[in-house]
Every structure is written in C-alpha cells, then in structure tokens.
C-alpha cells in the first residue's frame, strides 16, 4: 500500500484517482510515501524519510522548499495548465472592468438609496451615465508577457475580441510555440512590448530573474494610460513603483490578484482576493493532474511536470522482473558505477533511460530479476547517488 498525506481541501475527483486497493489517503498519515497539497507551506516542516514525492495541485511551488527536497531526492510536481482557463477568464474580466466604468457606475447606482421614484432615477442615470463612459477592447493592443498555457489561451480570446496581440517570452518552448496563434506578434524584448501595448498582462513564474520585472524603470517605458494586469505572482510587480506611476498619471490602471495595503481604496486599482484559480473546475483539474502524476511516479517511476527533476518516462514490460530508479548528483561516472555494481551481482539490465536537469540526474533501469536488498544497499552507497527505489 502506498500512503498519501493530504494538506488543504483536495478535490474529491482528484483523490478518487488513487485506487483504494493500492493507496491509503488521509490528512493524518504517518510515514507517507508522498504529499498532495495546494497552498499549505512546507517550509520549516520536518520531512519524513519515507516521502518520495510532493505534488502541488496548482502551478506555483513557492510553498515547497524545492531546493532542500531536491537534495533528498524528493520529486516535486506541479500541475501547469490545469487552471489556465480559470485564470484566462479572470484576466478577460479584468480587462473588461478596466475598459468600462462598470465598477464606479455600479457603486454610483447603489449610492442612490435615498431615491424612491423609478422614473426620477432613470432620468438621473441618463444624465450621469457619461461619467462612466469607457473604451472598447476591439482594436486595442494587448501585450502578453509569458506565452505558456495561460498566455496562449488569453491570446486566442483577445484575438476573438478583435484585439491586436503581441507577446514576449525569452523561454518559449517548442510546445508553447505550436500552441500560440500565428497572429500573435513576437516582440524581441520586454521594453518593445511595453511601449506598444494598451493592456499588459503578466504570465511568468516568480523566480529570482522575474522579481520586480515591472519596476520604476520598466514602467517609464509603458505607453501612457496603459492598463497593467498581474494575475501571475505578487513578486513580479513592484507595487510601490506602480503607485508612483499611477500618481504621476503615466500608468492608467493596475488590475491584480494580489492586494497590498498600498493599493487599497484607489479608483485606479482593482485588486482581487487571489481568486485566479478559484473555480470548482480548476481545483478539480489541478487535483486530478497532481494525483495522476503521483500514481505514475510511485508505481512506474515516471516523471512528468516536475519542477526539480527532468521529465523521464519508460513503458513497463509485464515480463520484466523489476524496475530500479535512482537519482544522483549530475556528475560524470555515476551511471557507469551503478551499472558495474549490477554487473558484479549478475543483475541483467534489459532497458534503461537516463536524463539530467541542472545539478540532478534521474535514471530508470529495468532488470530481469528483482535485485536483493544487498544489491540495493550497494547502489545506495555509490558516490553521488541520492536515492534508490525498486518498483
């Protein structure tokens, strides 16, 4: 039996992906094989030696001490794209709210509680409605920073609304490039995108390279009156620089999913309570993806959508005696040493795959006969090997 410890409220549809005959799933399990969680912060918590993997039901993994876990051979999964549609719809909502006088208009209407005559109210609103006039999205230019799963969906939707779309992503993958509509103009750098866009939406991860990507200097490049949208991560935008730009009349509006005290009670800031992925469908999709990835890893050793290990997969052959997986520091000679140990113990290798990512490597080796505890102990003692499993 595999043991899965849950944190937060994980969608039942996700938890049902763990076959009950093979898995014990609960929030109070001791010595678990894996964690599945949403926003619970694992920093500072003791990690049982039994834990082999952590799956985040969502895209960001800021709540997981990834570097620490990597050194222990713990694979950290996320679920990229599973909440993409939910975020896309909220970004569109933000653009529409920012382009029309919807929120101030509704606030004005709700302030008319002293009026009792419907005809009188109608006449007053007809007179005052010009105060809430806005702009149409059609014909405006949307700049998308980050062209992954969410960015490409937003590009599709914006094009359907008649907008011009430009994008910038220095780390655009081949897969993402195929997903991207051909009508999207590729910008060579961030500054070119900012200078051209009426609306700017951010969809990059929060990593050291993107901290305060939008700051006092980059905001100066923005088109005057532009609307900035941040539904990615709080750290990407310097909120103080945004407020200064708004106060100077350069940036038009800031619409985000990350309220900060400095942003409150401003007519030119619409701050939402971090609800980008808070839909029933997104939570289900993230939980299902996270659970499926854990099952495939625990049962087959395959890795997909890990933030700290390479993507590795190899089909299982029912006639093969066992599968050995091991992670190691990415230095030369480790795999050769492991294969020598297997050869010395007369363990015949049938198939194998080896991949690396940064400072870590991961290996899957299928063997004819399940190795003895003595063999596994010898493999674990190979220099630079981090963790060994037999499946």
Give a short overview.
By secondary structure, the chain is an alpha/beta fold.
List the helices and strands and how they pair.
Elements: E1 2-6, H1 12-15, E2 23-26, E3 34-37, E4 53-56, H2 66-71, E5 75-77, H3 84-99, H4 102-110, H5 118-128, E6 141-145, H6 149-160, E7 164-168, H7 174-179, E8 185-186, H8 190-196, E9 199-202, H9 216-221, E10 227-230, H10 239-247, E11 253-256, E12 269-271, H11 280-300, E13 322-329, H12 334-344, E14 349-357, E15 360-367, H13 373-380, E16 385-390
Parallel strand pairs: 1-2, 1-3, 3-4, 4-5, 6-7, 6-9, 7-8, 9-10, 10-11, 11-12
Antiparallel strand pairs: 13-15, 13-16, 14-15
Helix pairs in contact: 3-6
How would you describe this structure to a colleague?
With 391 residues, this protein is of the alpha/beta class. The chain has helices at 12-15, 66-71, 84-99, 102-110, 118-128, 149-160, 174-179, 190-196, 216-221, 239-247, 280-300, 334-344, 373-380; strands at residues 2-6, 23-26, 34-37, 53-56, 75-77, 141-145, 164-168, 185-186, 199-202, 227-230, 253-256, 269-271, 322-329, 349-357, 360-367, 385-390. It folds into 4 domains: 1-78 and 279-309, NAD(P)-binding Rossmann-like Domain (Rossmann fold, 3-Layer(aba) Sandwich), CATH 3.40.50.720; 85-99 and 136-271, Rossmann fold; 101-134; 314-390, ACT domain (Alpha-Beta Plaits, 2-Layer Sandwich). The protein is elongated, with a radius of gyration of 26 Å. Helix 3 crosses helix 6 (149-160). The relative contact order is 0.12. The longest helix has 21 residues, at 280-300. The strands form 3 sheets. The protein has a 7-stranded parallel sheet, with helices on both faces. The chain has a 5-stranded parallel sheet with strand order 2-1-3-4-5. Strand 7, helix 7 (174-179) and strand 8 form a beta-alpha-beta unit. 32% of the residues lie in helices and 20% in strands. The model has no long low-confidence stretch (mean pLDDT 95).
């Amino acid at each position: 039996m595999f043991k899965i410890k849950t944190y937060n409220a994980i969608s039942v549809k996700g938890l049902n992906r763990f076959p009950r005959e093979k898995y014990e799933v609960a929030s109070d399990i001791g010595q678990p094989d894996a964690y599945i969680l949403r926003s619970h912060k694992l920093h500072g918590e003791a990690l049982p030696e039994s834990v082999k993997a952590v799956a985040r039901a969502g895209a960001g993994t800021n709540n997981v001490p990834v570097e620490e876990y990597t050194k222990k051979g713990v694979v950290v999964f996320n679920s990229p794209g599973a909440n993409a549609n939910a975020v896309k719809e909220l970004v569109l909502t933000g653009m529409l709210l920012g382009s029309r006088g919807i929120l101030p208009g509704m606030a004005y209407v709700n302030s008319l509680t002293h009026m009792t005559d419907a005809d009188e109210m109608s006449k007053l609103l007809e007179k005052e409605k010009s105060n809430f006039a806005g702009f149409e999205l059609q014909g405006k230019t949307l700049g998308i920073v980050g062209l992954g799963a969410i960015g490409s969906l937003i590009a599709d939707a914006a094009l359907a609304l008649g907008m011009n779309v430009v994008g910038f992503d220095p780390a655009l993958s081949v897969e993402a490039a195929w997903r991207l509509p051909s009508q999207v103009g590729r910008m060579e750098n961030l500054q070119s995108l900012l200078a051209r866009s009426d609306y700017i939406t951010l969809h990059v991860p929060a990593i050291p390279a993107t901290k305060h990507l939008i700051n006092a200097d980059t905001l100066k490049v923005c088109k005057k009156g532009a609307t900035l949208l941040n539904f990615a991560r709080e750290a990407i935008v310097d909120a103080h620089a945004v407020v200064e730009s708004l106060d100077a009349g350069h940036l038009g509006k800031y619409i985000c999913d990350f309220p900060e005290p400095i942003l409150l009670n401003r007519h030119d800031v619409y701050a939402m309570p971090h609800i980008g992925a808070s839909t029933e469908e997104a939570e289900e999709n993230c939980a299902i993806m996270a659970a499926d990835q854990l099952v495939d890893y625990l049962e087959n050793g395959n890795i997909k959508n890990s933030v700290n290990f390479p993507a590795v997969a190899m089909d299982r052959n029912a006639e093969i005696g066992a599968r050995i997986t091991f992670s190691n520091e990415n230095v030369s000679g480790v795999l050769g040493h492991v294969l020598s140990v297997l050869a010395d113990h007369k363990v015949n290798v049938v198939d194998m795959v080896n991949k690396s990512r940064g400072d870590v490597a991961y290996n899957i080796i299928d063997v004819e006969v399940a190795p003895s505890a003595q063999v596994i102990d010898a493999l674990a003692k190979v220099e630079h090997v981090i963790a060994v499993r037999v499946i």
